[in-house]
Amino acid sequence: MSISTNLSFKTPNFSISKPHNPSFNPCKLQQLQQFPPCSSPIRANSISCTLARDLGVKMEEKETQSSVFLRPDSFGRFGKFGGKYVPETLMHALTELESAFHLLARDEKFQKELAGILKDYVGRESPLYFAERLTEHYKNSNREGPHIYFKREDLNHTGAHKINNAVAQALLAKRLGKKRIIAETGAGQHGVATATVCARFGLECIIYMGAQDMERQSLNVFRMRLLGAEVRPVHSGTATLKDATSEAIRDWVTNVESTHYILGSVAGPHPYPMMVREFHAVIGKETRKQAMEKWGGKPDVLVACVGGGSNAMGLFHEFVDDKDVRLIGVEAAGFGIDSGKHAATLTKGEVGVLHGAMSYLLQDGDGQIIEPHSISAGLDYPGVGPEHSFLKDIGRAEYYSITDEEALEGPVDPTPSLARRRAFKRVSRLEGIIPALETSHAIAYLEKLCPTLPNGTKVVLNFSGRGDKDVQTAIKYLEV
Amino acid sequence: MAYTFQPTLVANPKRSRILEYMSCNPKRIHSHQVNQYNSKSATDHFSSRIKSCLSIAGSWRFGKYGGRYVPETVISCLNKLEDEFNLAMADSNFQAELRTALRDYVGRETPLYLAQGLTDYYKNGNGEGPEIYLKREDLNYSGSYKINNVVAQALLAKRIGSKSVVTATGTGQHGVATAAICAKLSLECTVHMGTLDMEMQFSNILQMKLLGAQVKSVEGNFKDAISEAFRDWAGKMETSYYLCGTGVSPHPIPIMVREFQSVIGKETRRQSMEKWGGKPDVLIACVGSGSNAMGLFHEFLGDEEVRLIGVEAGGLGLDTGKHSATLARGEMGVYHGTMSYLLQDDEGQITAPYSIAISLQYPGVSPELSFLKDSGRAQFYSVTDKEALEAFEGLCRLEGIIPSLETSHALAFLGKICPTLSNGTKVVVNCSECGDKDLAKVFDIHHGLTK
């Protein structure tokens, strides 16, 4: 049973005896503070939460919740999603972070410094690349079809979009006078991005990584250590990402004065979803400018893969208020959404609290987190950013899912429809660009989308990462 | 002194008319056979040493280096290639297509990045030292400068009407770049790779295959792969294009490769003007065959106040014989169709080169760099494997950039040159490649699995 059937919460002023464990059973919040149960038997709509107003934060008065696109509101919520479900000890740090973020958003010197780093260190702006052969591939028998463009985030330093946010947060941390950075990582991508920026800015870097993941990703562990980071193994629980996250949060609670926690996605407690989105919003801003240059208009459809949701929000955010632009997120269906082995949170999840935010998440009847599965490590996450949950609920964005097989390559099969589902290999062979397995999910969705689009529709797909890291995984399944 | 080469027949009877390249030992020359292939021979000269190194298409040499030491059967192909190259360079449509590909596919222009961590590291006790900039060729698609030349040549191949491309690769970076652009342009692609190199480059081999290339193994290493690739191409010259990644080739290839790489130097000039309102004072690049160095240097050849420094692979030390420092220890000879410095023994046999950096492990060097050395326009030094590894780790820690082991040679030289430079000197190092491909090797070294 999910928490939302019985309880409504007043957050975040409750205190808990242990530091926040993001894999905790959401139902266990019952023991902390009880409120009159909601009359509705089900989930998301029956929750009402209030967030204590933090005096330290100067924010403009926002409109009431009748305004559809307050993102987020003054309480850090996107509709009913988001918020700050954290221990009291972290409240000050989050407040301080939010204040700093708003101040620096208006600080020309900071913005100029950040722009310079994005240009000279990260290598922005990333191109908007016309995928000519893929466009040709999706033409119908009348030679009609959409025009497909890739936003080439794979060309960034470290090979993915993640560095946009890592760089900005490291710079922010420096401005706050923090000398120490912590992060958690699963397969190592976010850890590498964090270690990279810490080296660049001369910050101490501690990365928490599940011991099991460390064994599987020894080269990435070595990479982080070469970059000067300390990689701490986490042996508790299943010794994977969610346990590493718990440990990182524990560290943060203990060292909050000196330490900044670089969260890698648009999940987590407010202000992280907003901050990470803003730091990735450069993707969408550049896309608008480049689209105008290339075809004198806006994109018609934006497509991006969704794990935590940061690359998608980075592309979508600029266009959320442009109602004529369709927003499509593609999640990982793993072995199939009915198999129970997937990471399709928005498709199959229910509303709950995970990692400090209210959002959709994969949980069982007891409110336990369901271990997700995807062939792509970056999508292998049981939650999703609260803003995506909001955009789904209000119908502004659409979310679909793609299986491992569809993302990669189907088994060798004479059936034409199956033979066509070869996103990872298809883009490599047609465009000479190897996508990350995460990105391959978005690419695979083109197979279903393109036949429905009128001739000349402009589709922009966020090419969120490069795939050389995935070749050894993919080759086990592909025939090359 | 006249030069000749001693052809040998390839054992394969199908190729009995094809002659293998051989190195040339000037100590044994008596006859004058070879110059039948070089109508513009050693009598060419230029009014000044600097003008001669601004070699233009149609002029086959850089001083006494360069030329075309190839079998007769290949001459017409090279003539055609030269004509097509000249036409393409003058064709604004081709140039526009190339610019778009470099911008949207490769991701140019690459930044000129102030490496503050390195700059601070090399400051002296008074807090003074040069300013160090990195030209970020590691940010190109495929992680290397190599793609600049590959994209341009592939577009040229398509323009000529070739259906397939043949090439050779050392570390695999050039192979991956070639496979990638061939996929994009619907060209068949065959990549030859030495068996010794294939052992450490599993990921690159997988990438090439995924991109649709056929990867053929050749006994030996990079130099052997080049020979085999040329042999392969020679059998199907009418429909196939030989995509050379190095400047060690018969004319017009050294000029073509240099021109296509010169985008590096052109951008550097403009960016340095934007950043500090002037030119660089010192340019540093690693030197294997020399194409990344020429790409950076060429734009500034006429600017005599800009120092040009190439850094070769000193391996285990120049006196050990285990190195690839061609310009430091080589002698003049003919290799892979061109006259240049070459690592050879007294009998004219190629000396096996060695370096921890595979792409620097090559016995030859670009003829243009040979000329620049002799004319004194550029200076060449070498660093050992150990120094390169230290520089590799240094850049990781100081800047959060993982360089290739090749690039690390250029970076290692900073340790020797920076103390000699005056405060505020602007140094630009060509960060030619990303080091992801070398992580496994460095990992093994750290864990004692390799020396």
UniProtKB/TrEMBL annotation, chain A:
Enzyme Commission no: 4.2.1.20
InterPro entries reported for this sequence: Trp_synth_b_CS, Trp_synth_beta, Trp_synth_beta/beta-like, TrpB-like_PALP, TrpB-like_PALP_sf
Xref: Gene3D superfamilies: 3.40.50.1100
Cofactor needs: pyridoxal 5'-phosphate
A GO term from the CC aspect: cytoplasm
TM helices/strands, residue ranges: none
Catalytic activity: (1S,2R)-1-C-(indol-3-yl)glycerol 3-phosphate + L-serine = D-glyceraldehyde 3-phosphate + L-tryptophan + H2O
Top class in the EC scheme: lyase
Keywords from the UniProt entry: Amino-acid biosynthesis, Aromatic amino acid biosynthesis, Lyase, Pyridoxal phosphate, Tryptophan biosynthesis
UniProt xrefs under CDD domains: Trp-synth_B
Signal peptide coordinates: none
Residue span(s) of domain Tryptophan synthase beta chain-like PALP: 125-465
GO MF entry, a single one: tryptophan synthase activity
Pathway connected to this protein: Amino-acid biosynthesis; L-tryptophan biosynthesis; L-tryptophan from chorismate: step 5/5
Protein name (Swiss-Prot/TrEMBL): Tryptophan synthase
Species annotation: Kingdonia uniflora
Lineage, top ranks: Eukaryota, Viridiplantae, Streptophyta, Embryophyta, Tracheophyta
Automatic annotation (TrEMBL), chain B:
Cofactor names: pyridoxal 5'-phosphate
UniProt keyword list: Amino-acid biosynthesis, Aromatic amino acid biosynthesis, Lyase, Pyridoxal phosphate, Tryptophan biosynthesis
Keyword Amino-acid biosynthesis appears in the UniProt entry: yes
Domain of life: Eukaryota
Organism: Kingdonia uniflora
Pathway membership, UniProt: Amino-acid biosynthesis; L-tryptophan biosynthesis; L-tryptophan from chorismate: step 5/5
EC number: 4.2.1.20
CDD domains assigned to the protein according to its UniProt record, in alphabetical order: Trp-synth_B
Protein name: Tryptophan synthase
UniProt cross-references to NCBIfam families, sorted A to Z: trpB (TIGR00263)
Keyword Disulfide bond: no
Catalyzed reactions per annotation: (1S,2R)-1-C-(indol-3-yl)glycerol 3-phosphate + L-serine = D-glyceraldehyde 3-phosphate + L-tryptophan + H2O
Signal peptide segment: none
Broad enzyme group: lyase
Gene Ontology cellular component terms for the protein in this record: cytoplasm
Molecular functions per Gene Ontology: tryptophan synthase activity
Sequence ranges assigned to domain Tryptophan synthase beta chain-like PALP in this UniProt record: 108-431
Pfam family, one: PALP
